[in-house]
Design a protein that fits this description.
With 397 residues, the protein is of the alpha/beta class. It has 14 helices and 14 strands. The chain folds into two domains: 155 residues, no CATH class; 234 residues, no CATH class. The longest helix has 22 residues.
């Protein structure tokens, strides 16, 4: 019978959690995962274990596993721990003999999915022969290596239950204020927000043109959930990658889409000119801006072709559609333009930028919209993430 050996060092560097340390917590998680998958596990064996604290047995394969944990699920903490775990697992594997393969596990209270992907890619590049596991205290588990995918699990926290007890962190005005707080390092031609360091909630209310109470509530929500650096004299966002991940996961900015056709056949260039002409009018009128893939093209970030352009319109108004040369009639014959009426309007229109006189949704909005769009949206969102948003992480915002 082949043997799986799980070596859990006692110097894991994780903050204690009540009476039992997180060492016990993650040891329990790994033990239970193996047992539920049909492995026989002995904890803290007294036989020759070459340093192992757990032994799991099952016919077919053998892994030597080292578990490392950190107090925070951050890249600068977990990459070094993963490296150390890989080296130790390889050393234990040599000592064990019998063809046992190394498996390095890293753990934290919460590990963002995007960071999990970075850890997997790091191991693939630098230690292709070593399997790894990623575990957090919220139920998430991800393992690489032959036969280990049965140990995987999705995060156990119910976001629906969470939101029943918490105000909406991503309400319309909150999203607009969040763009202000994170937008300092984004070029003005990608995001239209006040370019100043926000000192406090009152200053945020003034900059965002919202009520003082709205800004205070938002700042309080951010602080309670650990997204504000409370040791600074200004409002500075921290854990920005995790915040963006949650933003995308809870995003639902679409109220309704309406397919439209040209009244008189036009090409996209003529349509964009009509949008710019409409936006230049001085009298009060429903706001509009280009969205999704067409907006990505206008920002110079386009990645997807062949999708009819989307136009955000504050409300459905047939007179405005006529000014733009569009009609809602005859759409059974096809769609030339998609008219999108947003349920969260202020974050869409206030942060929009101008490209050659044409209003265009900002780069964060394009990322959110395309990520939620099934028409090859993930590819476009990934391109924006790589080129524009990812460089924000680790920099003052």
């Amino acid at each position: 019978m082949a043997m799986i050996t799980i070596a859990v060092p006692v110097h894991l560097g994780f903050m204690p959690m009540g009476k039992h340390s997180s060492i016990d917590q993650f040891e329990n998680i790994v033990t239970n995962a193996f047992r539920q998958a049909g492995w026989r596990v002995r904890r803290h064996p007294t036989t020759k274990d070459f340093g192992a604290d757990l032994i799991a047995e099952r016919a077919g394969a053998a892994f030597v596993v080292v578990i490392k944990s950190a107090a925070e699920g951050r890249r600068d903490r977990l990459i070094p721990l993963l490296s150390q775990g890989i080296l130790e697992a390889q050393a234990f594997g040599c000592r064990a003999g019998g063809g046992a393969a190394p498996l390095a596990v890293v753990a934290a209270r919460r590990i963002p999915l995007s960071l999990a992907g970075q850890l997997i890619e790091f191991a693939r590049r630098h230690a292709p022969g070593v399997a790894i596991g990623i575990v957090d205290g919220q139920g998430y588990r991800k393992f690489t290596g032959s036969g280990l995918s049965v140990l995987d699990a999705k995060r156990a926290i119910s976001m629906g239950r969470f939101h029943q007890h918490q105000p909406d962190l991503f309400s319309d005005l909150n999203q607009w204020m969040l763009k202000i707080l994170v937008g300092g390092n984004i070029r003005p031609d990608f995001l239209s927000v006040p370019r100043e360091e926000i000192r406090n909630a009152s200053h945020l209310a003034e900059a965002a043109s919202v009520s003082t109470m709205s800004a205070f509530r938002f700042a309080n929500q951010l602080a309670k959930q650990g997204f504000l650096d409370e040791n600074r004299e200004c409002l500075r966002i921290v854990r920005i990658e995790e915040l963006f991940e949650r933003w995308a996961a809870t995003y639902s900015g679409v109220s309704s889409d309406f397919p439209a056709r040209w009244i008189i056949k036009k090409d996209e260039k003529q349509f964009f000119s009509a949008v710019a002409k409409y936006a230049s009018q001085s009298e009060p009128q429903p706001r509009c801006c280009l969205g999704l893939f067409a907006a990505a093209d206008a920002l110079g970030l386009g990645f997807v072709r062949g999708v009819p352009p989307h136009l955000y319109l504050e409300r459905l108004d047939r007179d405005v559609l006529r000014q733009l040369g569009l009609t809602l009639d005859g759409t059974d014959q096809g769609t030339d333009v998609n008219i999108r009426i947003p349920s969260k309007r202020e974050t869409v229109f206030r942060a929009a930028v101008s490209r050659e006189g044409m209003p265009v949704t900002d780069v964060i909005q394009v990322w959110l919209d395309t990520a939620a769009n099934p028409a090859r949206g993930r590819e476009q969102a990934n391109e924006i993430w790589r080129r524009i948003l990812k460089p924000l992480f680790g920099k003052p915002a």
